[in-house]
């Protein structure tokens, strides 16, 4: 199991799977630490939000910090006032689901000074080589640099979430290792974990380091 | 790397347009289609294309008019309220016989409505995209792969018939992510456009694109000629998919996301021994009249499943000549029917209208 810092930030290219990884991380963190929160700071996308899993999260006793407008018809780039508790509450550990790309990461800039000053955080880049605009290491690096410039927090690690939706197999994940290693080499950052659907995680045992099974998965029509 | 990519419907439209040779995109942001513009903004500068965020939807459609006049493949996209704003431009494009691709990723209405998915612009797309006598070719994808394929098809049909193709999707189709194979997309290059206003090079007379006619007799002839072309399209370009229709007693009519939901309901009803099938129109105009007419010979009723208050149902009634009952199974205002709701409607229809 992963050791969690005070704040775990998840950034990445739009549609790379940040929310899914974040929600699953919150459940893992909750097992190790009582006072756990998940914060949704997405100001770009009104759909596919942490709030979609609010019921499951609340039942598990995980605090959900999210704009009350997420998932409603009000398509406003709103942030929840409770977001300041992420940095203010020292006895609460948070998983922070940041909006996609540099535009999404802009909102994080509001907290960057406090986060960096405290220094008890992980800033993770969620990567997926099957997304059309981050298919290789170079284009992924470009997105990383844009995000860092927007939120003023340097990345500390990578989450390889390479998948192709419902057609993902163990092979898909194994094939993505080379890409993840290349991003790691170019950025000088470690691949902290490889996140995969739970049923595939079993197959990857012993083949991939730090496999993170995604138990909660939203299905599509 | 991998052959397939994981794309949002909106992104698939944008990339497919680029593959189809579109290098000019004009738009104005509106949920749930903004990813098309965002994608174009990133990609177009890298391939020598033009992405321009217009000052309004009206400006964008008139920029489309300009590029279409010059004979190049061009597109704009919006969602329901934005498409209403484009109405005047759509009519001018039709009146000038200019090809273009217009994408509508529908949201709940009327008015500003909401940002959740809807199919309630069916009438607008198939009947009255703007004022005057004209049609648009209306394509209704039901998967992200089909979003890509029909985008290419839309450009080709637009060029072939010198008119607007509209890709009519909905918020779900625009936002959902699915694996897509783009390498398999086949693109026919744009035909010669001797009418284009792309410079005479001092070798021909000036071309003019215009929708103003000063002589009513001539305007009438233009309308007659246009409708002859429309008849050709109705005869040759209709697309639909049939699912388990051979022995069906009940026929579902559904397009886009409603067809995906309905397919699950059809499968479950079949497991329960109910003979139900589905006709999924892929072109909404021209509407696939023939399969519905044929189905009316052997089904006892039709169920039109829609994310609207019932719009396509009118075409189902017309196509089946009202020979058997046509009922509506719907949600509205941004809500999506569940497979259970559709299954209920099937069971009810199978019991002759009783639950």
Keywords:
heterodimer, A: 221 residues, alpha/beta, Rossmann fold, 8-stranded parallel sheet, 8 helices, globular, B: 355 residues, 2 domains, 5-stranded mixed sheet, 14 strands
Please write out the topology.
The complex is a heterodimer of chains A (221) and B (355).
Chain A: E1 7-12, H1 18-32, E2 36-40, H2 54-59, E3 63-66, H3 85-88, E4 93-97, H4 101-105, H5 109-118, E5 121-127, H6 137-151, E6 157-160, H7 170-187, E7 191-197, H8 198-203, E8 211-214
Parallel strand pairs in A: 1-4, 1-5, 2-3, 2-4, 5-6, 6-7, 7-8
Chain B: E1 4-8, H1 9-19, E2 24-27, H2 34-43, E3 50-53, H3 57-69, E4 74-78, H4 80-95, E5 100-106, H5 122-126, E6 137-139, H6 144-161, E7 164-170, H7 171-175, E8 177-181, H8 216-236, E9 240-243, E10 250-253, H9 256-271, E11 276-281, E12 283-285, H10 289-295, E13 301-306, H11 312-319, E14 326-330, H12 339-350
Parallel strand pairs in B: 2-3, 2-4, 4-5, 5-7, 6-7, 10-11, 10-13, 13-14
Antiparallel strand pairs in B: 1-8, 6-12, 9-11
Give a verbal description of the structure:
The complex is a heterodimer of chains A (221) and B (355). Chain A has 221 residues and is of the alpha/beta class. Chain A has a single domain (7-214), classed as P-loop containing nucleotide triphosphate hydrolases (Rossmann fold, 3-Layer(aba) Sandwich). Helices cover 36% and strands 19% of the residues of chain A. An eight-stranded parallel sheet of chain A has the order 3-2-4-1-5-6-7-8, with helices on both faces. In chain A, helix 6 packs across helix 7. The longest helix of chain A is centred in the last third of the chain and has 18 residues, at 170-187. Chain B has 355 residues and is of the alpha/beta class. Chain B is built from twelve helices and 14 strands. Chain B has helices spanning 9-19, 34-43, 57-69, 80-95, 122-126, 144-161, 171-175, 216-236, 256-271, 289-295, 312-319, 339-350; strands at 4-8, 24-27, 50-53, 74-78, 100-106, 137-139, 164-170, 177-181, 240-243, 250-253, 276-281, 283-285, 301-306, 326-330. In chain B, the strands form three sheets. In chain B, strands 3-2-4-5-7-6-12 form a seven-stranded mixed sheet, with helices on both faces. Chain B has a five-stranded mixed sheet with strand order 9-11-10-13-14, sandwiched between helices. In chain B, strands 1-8 form a two-stranded antiparallel sheet. Chain B is globular, with a radius of gyration of 21 Å. The chains are: A alpha/beta (221), B alpha/beta (355). At the A-B interface, helix 7 of A face strand 1, helix 2, strand 8 and helix 9 of B.
């Amino acid at each position: 199991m992963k050791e969690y810092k005070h704040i775990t930030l998840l950034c990445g290219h739009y549609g790379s799977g940040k929310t899914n990884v974040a929600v699953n991380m919150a459940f893992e963190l909750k097992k190790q630490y009582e006072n756990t929160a998940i914060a949704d700071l997405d100001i770009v996308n009104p759909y596919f939000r942490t709030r979609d899993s609010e019921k499951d999260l609340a039942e598990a006793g995980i605090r959900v910090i999210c704009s009350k407008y997420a998932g409603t018809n009000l398509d406003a780039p709103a942030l929840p006032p409770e977001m300041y508790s992420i940095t203010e509450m020292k006895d609460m550990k948070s998983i922070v689901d940041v909006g996609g790309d540099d535009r999404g990461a802009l909102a994080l800039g509001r907290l960057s000074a406090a986060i960096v000053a405290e220094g008890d955080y992980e800033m993770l880049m969620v990567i997926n080589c099957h997304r059309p605009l981050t298919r290789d290491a170079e284009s992924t690096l470009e997105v990383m640099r844009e995000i860092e410039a927007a939120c003023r927090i340097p990345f500390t690690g990578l989450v390889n979430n390479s998948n192709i939706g419902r057609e993902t197999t163990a092979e898909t994940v194994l094939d993505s290792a080379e890409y993840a290693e290349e991003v790691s080499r170019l950025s000088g950052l470690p691949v902290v974990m490889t996140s995969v659907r739970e049923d595939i995680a079993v197959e990857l045992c012993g083949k991939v380091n730090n496999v993170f099974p995604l138990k909660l998965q939203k299905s599509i029509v | 790397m991998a052959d397939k990519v994981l794309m949002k419907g909106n992104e698939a439209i944008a990339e497919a347009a680029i593959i189809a040779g579109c290098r000019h995109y004009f738009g104005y942001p509106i949920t749930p289609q903004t990813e098309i513009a965002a994608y174009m903004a990133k990609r177009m500068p890298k391939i020598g294309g033009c992405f321009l965020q217009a000052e309004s939807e009206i400006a964008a459609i008139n920029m489309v008019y300009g590029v279409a006049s010059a004979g190049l493949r061009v597109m704009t996209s919006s969602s329901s309220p934005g498409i209403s704003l484009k109405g005047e431009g759509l009519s001018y494009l039709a009146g000038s016989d200019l090809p273009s691709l217009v994408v509508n990723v529908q949201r709940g209405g009327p008015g500003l409505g909401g940002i959740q998915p809807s199919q309630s612009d069916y009438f607008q797309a198939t009947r009255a995209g703007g004022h005057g006598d004209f049609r648009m070719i209306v394509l209704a994808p039901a998967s992200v792969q089909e979003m890509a394929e029909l985008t290419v098809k839309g450009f080709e049909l637009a060029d072939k018939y010198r008119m607007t193709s509209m890709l009519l999707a909905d918020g779900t189709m625009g936002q959902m992510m699915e694996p897509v194979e783009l390498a398999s997309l086949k693109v026919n290059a744009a035909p010669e456009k001797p009418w284009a206003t792309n410079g005479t090079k001092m070798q021909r007379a000036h071309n003019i694109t215009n929708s103003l006619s000063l002589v009513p007799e001539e305007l009438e002839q233009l309308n007659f000629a246009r409708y002859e072309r429309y008849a050709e399209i109705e005869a040759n370009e209709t697309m639909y998919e049939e699912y388990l229709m051979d022995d069906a007693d009940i026929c579902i009519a559904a397009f886009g996301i409603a067809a995906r939901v309905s397919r699950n309901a059809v499968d479950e009803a079949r497991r329960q021994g109910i003979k139900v099938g589905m006709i999924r129109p892929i072109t909404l105009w021209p509407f696939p009249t023939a399969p519905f007419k044929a189905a009316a010979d052997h089904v006892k009723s039709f169920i039109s499943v829609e994310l609207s208050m019932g719009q396509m149902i009118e075409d189902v009634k017309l196509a089946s000549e009202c020979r058997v009952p046509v009922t509506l199974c719907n949600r509205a205002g941004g809500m999506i029917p569940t497979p259970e709701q559709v299954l209920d409607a099937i069971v009810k229809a199978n019991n002759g209208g009783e639950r």
